[in-house]
Each structure stands twice: as C-alpha cells, then as structure tokens.
Amino acid sequence: MSSGGGSAAPLLTPYKMGRFDLSHRVVLAPLTRQRSYGNVPQPHAILYYQQRTTKGGLLIAEATGISDTAQGYKDTPGIWTKEQVEAWKPIVDGVHAKGGIFFCQIWHVGRVSNNTFQPNGQAPISSTNKSMKPAVRANGIDVATFSTPRQLETDEIPSIVNDFRVAARNAIDAGFDGVEIHGAHGYLIDQFLKDQVNDRIDKYGGSLENRCRFALEVAQAVVDEIGADKVGIRLSPFASYSEASDSNPEALGLYMANALNKLGILYCHMVEPRMAKLGEKFETPYSLGPIRNAFKGTFIAAGGYTQEDGNKAVSTGYADLVAYGRLFLSNPDLPRRFEIDAPLNKYNRETFYISDPVIGYTDYPFLPSDV
Ligand SMILES: Cc1cc2nc3c(=O)[nH]c(=O)nc-3n(C[C@H](O)[C@H](O)[C@H](O)COP(=O)(O)O)c2cc1C
C-alpha cells in the first residue's frame, strides 16, 4: 500500500473486531437513501452495496424500520415483515459474495414522523407528547409536518423493546452478520436519552439512569436474542438534531459506555461532537476521547472525517474504526482511493434522497482498474 510513505496507512491496517477479521478500518456509515419503495428493500440495492464492498470491509446498512410505527420518511426499508426479510436476503448475499461484513441498522423514528406514515393515521409515538416546531427539517430530509406525538405509557414500552428484539432476529434471518441499534440523531431511543425531549415522570425519565433505561433495555433484549458479539449501537450524545440535545452530553456518553460494557456488546459507534448540527462541522471543545477510553469494545468514530484525520484517529488510538458517510456515498471504491491517495468524487446532495434507482446511487464512478 502506497499511502503513508511506504508502510500501510493506519486506516488500511487490519483489525480484529470480535470474531470478524476486518482487512481495513474504513467503514460504510449508515446512509438512508429512500429507494426502498413501500418500505421493501429493492434489487437495485444489491449493486449499490456491492459497489461499496471490499473483502474484509465493514458495511452498516441504512436505517431500517423495526415496525409499522417506526417510519417517518418515504421509502425507507423495514425489517418487520416476511416480505422485507426476504427482500434483504439477496442484498446481504451480494455483500457476502464479495467478502464484506454487513450489519443492519435497526431504527424507530419516534416523533420524527407524522400520522400519514403511521398505521390508521395514528399519532407517532415517543417518550414525550411535546411536538417539534414545524420549521424543523428532520436530518436534512423534508418532512411536511411533524404530528404531535403520543407519549408511550410505561406499560407499552416492553412491546417496543420487543419490536427491536424481533427486528434483530429478522436481520440475522436475512443473513446480516449483526445489527447496529440506532440510538442517535434524535430518533426514538435518543428521545428517551436526551433531557431536552424526555419529560417523563416514570422510571424512564428524570435521572440519567432513568433516561438511559429504554436504550439499555433494547440493547439487553437484542443481546439476549442474537448474542453480544453481533451487536453494535450508534449514539450521538452531542448532537441536537430534531430538537434532541442534552444538557450534559459527556456524562450521557460516559454513562452509556459504562453500562454497555456490562452487556459486552461488540462495538459502540459515536458521532463526533463537531457534527452537533446537521451536515456541517462546528468548532467544539468536546471530544469523544473520554467516552472512547471508557468503552471496552470496538470504538467507531464518525462525522466529517477526511482521509487525513481518519488516519490520525486510528494512529493515535482515538478510534479503532472510522465510518465515512458522504465520501463513501460518492466514492464506491473509497478504501482503494485512500490506499493510493487518489482524488475523490464530490457528492451531490440533490440526489441523496431521490427515488431514482441509479442516479446518485449506483452511478458514481470508480477509479479505472489499472490505477
Ligand atoms: C444521505 C445521508 C443519509 C444518512 N442516513 C443515516 C442513517 O440512516 N442512519 C444514521 O445513523 N446516520 C445517517 N446519516 C449520517 C451519516 O451516517 C454520518 O454520520 C454523517 O453523514 C456524517 O459523516 P460524514 O461526514 O462522513 O458524511 C446520513 C447522512 C447522509 C448524508
């Protein structure tokens, strides 16, 4: 490998993540693409994911709904029906055929939804019944309006935990190597974690311990169902997307890291504090360092990484793996480009979420094979 003056660049060194032998540390971040018509994964996703597969590379699939109340965007995939599970199989097989390791990100949007996405037009469910300001655009995607959510009753929460458990089982049945619990970016789990949103007075609200209870019950259920060696979680304690911020994000991140250690999960995937707001980097005094040091499993960092600072994160031990979102979206051969210090394709925001099965999806160019 040519990068880094003769020896392999840190991002291109192998890493053993539990029982998975990764050949490099450049991870495909979960990327919602809104091309799963009617919440069913489509055959065009086979090519999309295969293009981004390397032998021994880790890919995290786009956020995938766990139930019929989990949706908040058009044409995002689900994994709660038999049809959806069957539809995932050829996509997972395609990744495995090229030697990739593929995790499914399991997701419930909570209040980042409106009743047109909900069964029988009901209100979206959440930790709270506080609605968001209509002007808020959820994570860069236009959502017409957010409906006022309905706060889950205490005794309804086990059934949502169970939906995560079943979705994890379904992911394994579809062939995925493991699941990533989506606990980030203002969605349902984050709506419990963050004190800007969570106004509950039961055992799921109030203290830090109580606010983390739902996330940890989900993690425990998923661990019990498929094994801790197949479970990761994504968290964004510092982010404020969809009006979900916390007054003490570092304490939140540390509490979760320590609690997750007890469950022995495979990895923790954290979004950088500099990505506090959508899309752009912000100056921040915060770092993931203390949380990384507290967590005992594999640590994946994400958010605004370049080739250079990804290499630095690995070489300094700040992260074991680095997940790339937009750069991997627009450069299907990103690890190869890093290997030879090749220029990168630019991403086009306009086509992130269009429903075209090719444009902005599988038509980003590769390097010529002889480069
Ligand atoms: C088009 C697009 C879709 C995304 N979808 C998801 C998603 O489904 N789940 C998730 O956790 N993050 C999602 N993100 C956030 C990315 O995983 C990543 O954290 C973010 O883009 C910052 O990393 P980057 O600077 O490498 O792009 C999405 C980002 C983009 C641009």
Automatic annotation (TrEMBL):
A Pfam family it matches: Oxidored_FMN
Origin species: Oryza brachyantha
InterPro entries named in the record: Aldolase_TIM (IPR013785), OxRdtase_FMN_N (IPR001155), Oye-like (IPR045247)
One GO MF term attached to the UniProt entry: oxidoreductase activity
Keywords from the UniProt entry: Fatty acid biosynthesis, Fatty acid metabolism, Flavoprotein, FMN, Lipid biosynthesis, Lipid metabolism, NADP, Oxidoreductase, Oxylipin biosynthesis
Keyword Ligase: no
This protein's name: NADH:flavin oxidoreductase/NADH oxidase N-terminal domain-containing protein
Entries under Gene3D superfamilies matching the protein: Aldolase class I (3.20.20.70)
Cofactor(s) it depends on: FMN
GO biological process, one term: jasmonic acid biosynthetic process
Family statement: Belongs to the NADH:flavin oxidoreductase/NADH oxidase family.
Residue span(s) of domain NADH:flavin oxidoreductase/NADH oxidase N-terminal: 11-343
Entry-linked SUPFAM superfamilies: FMN-linked oxidoreductases
